[in-house]
Design brief:
Blueprint lengths: L7 E3 L1 H4 L5 H23 L1 H7 L4 H28 L5 H18 L3 H28 L5 H30 L8 H27 L3 E3 L8 H27 L1 H9 L3 H29 L1 H10 L2 H6 L5 H15 L2 H12 L4 H29 L2 H8 L19
Parallel strand pairs: 1-2
Length: 405
């Protein structure tokens, strides 16, 4: 009887693989499609508010429904796929988003808008944990870079949504949202390609001897890991609660304070989101080079002075400040996510689902809470309140210094 094959200890250098450029490009492009369709909800708020006579509280409820659905399901899906990978779940998730998009185009009332938002949230919950895992698998060991490229696709899609809304939906109305179903079909095609690659990767990995990575296991005690995760979640709260207030009500803020048109406000929103997309590409590679902690610290706390000035700025300076805020703040998430993944390298799906889910949940909760606050005070007051949130970036000082793997 032969003895079992011993596990092989591998050094970081020996475990490096070439970057799967095609897969990384496909998963980033599908992220662009996914988040572009999601951002159409945000861009439709002024139309829905007028058409269905909604309060700011109801506008916030749309965001809450979509993001709370995504928030609740993402960690569960990530935990499940850690134990039992599901490569072809990705095109299924995009199909749910497509159904939500079509329902959004023909929703006759506020209740059906919420159902449509829920379908989009389910699609997002399926998409993000597995696609984040695949981005890491395709990275060739350059984890920060791969997450930044992946996030770049999502943020670019989020930025394009309002621009398309200003060019297409604003002049043509709610039903023109259905015209974007072609993009969803393209996303399904891209994800079928990614799913086939992932399936082949799983087959090849199953045939190889087990490899113990010498430097990927977290060497921190479990209590310290839990404390660090808590700090990272506080930072996610700070970032996404602030972003929820800034993005969900930005068009209303500009129209109310500066009397700009809906289309002009949408273009300003595009500028903010485009700056966020550009900044996304900075955090991951920089974290690979200098460590995650400095990037996290600078990206969140660094925007605090600009956030505090924003409510008192004129239109020109509001435009400049939001571009700076979007660029700097967006570099945080890739660094935070990779930092967390390095703490628990065998729970990539669960960690990704937890952080994406918490980010979505805080965004949805922020939109709902701040919508209620706006109804009882004003949008201008909301912007003054949320300006203090980036100061929570100070808790990054308590993160341990860790070398990038």
């Amino acid at each position: 009887m032969s003895s079992p094959a011993p596990s092989v200890a591998a050094s970081p250098a020996s475990s490096r693989r070439p970057v799967a450029v095609g897969v990384l490009a496909a998963i980033s492009s599908s992220h662009l499609v996914n988040d572009m369709m999601q951002s159409l909800i945000l861009a439709l708020y002024p139309i829905f508010k007028l058409q269905f006579n909604l309060s700011f509280t109801q506008v916030g409820m749309i965001t809450l429904t979509y993001q709370l659905t995504a928030s609740l399901f993402q960690p569960l899906i990530g935990l499940r796929t850690d134990k039992q990978p599901a490569p072809y779940s990705l095109p299924m998730g995009m199909t749910s988003t497509l159904c939500g998009l079509l329902l959004l185009a023909y929703a006759p009332n506020f209740s059906m808008v919420l159902v449509a938002a829920m379908l989009v949230g389910i699609g997002s919950a399926i998409f993000h944990p597995e696609s984040s895992r695949i981005a890491r698998l395709a990275s060739g060991g350059r984890h920060g870079l791969s997450q930044s490229v992946f996030q770049l696709g999502g943020n670019a899609g989020t930025a394009i949504g309002p621009l398309l809304a200003a060019a297409v939906i604003a002049p043509n109305g709610q039903r023109s949202v259905a015209w974007f179903s072609g993009a969803a079909l393209l996303g399904i095609g891209l994800l079928m390609y990614v799913s086939r690659w992932y399936q082949q990767h799983l087959v090849v990995s199953a045939a190889k001897p087990k490899v113990v990575m010498a430097n990927t296991e977290s060497r921190l005690p479990s209590r310290t890991v839990a404390w660090v995760i808590a700090i990272l979640l506080v930072l996610i709260f700070s970032k996404y609660f602030y972003i929820a207030g800034l993005s969900s009500f930005y068009t209303f803020y500009l129209m109310q304070k500066f009397s700009v048109t809906v289309q002009s406000a949408q273009l300003h929103l595009f500028g903010f989101l485009a700056a966020s997309a550009a900044g996304t590409l900075l955090g991951g590679p920089l974290g690979d080079r200098i460590g995650r902690k400095p990037v996290i610290w600078a990206s969140i706390l660094g925007v605090a002075p600009f956030a505090l000035i924003l409510p008192y700025a004129n239109l020109e300076w509001t435009t400049v400040l939001t571009l700076i805020i979007g660029f700097v703040l967006s570099s945080a998430f890739s660094a935070i996510l990779v930092y967390a993944q390095e703490l628990m390298p065998h729970r990539i799906g669960a960690v990704s689902g937890m952080f994406f889910g918490f980010a979505f949940g805080m965004g949805g909760l922020g939109a709902a809470v701040l919508g209620v606050l706006a109804d009882h005070t004003s949008i201008l007051w909301v912007y003054k309140v949320i300006s203090f949130l980036p100061l929570l970036g100070m808790v990054a000082a308590f993160l341990p210094n860790r070398r990038s793997s």
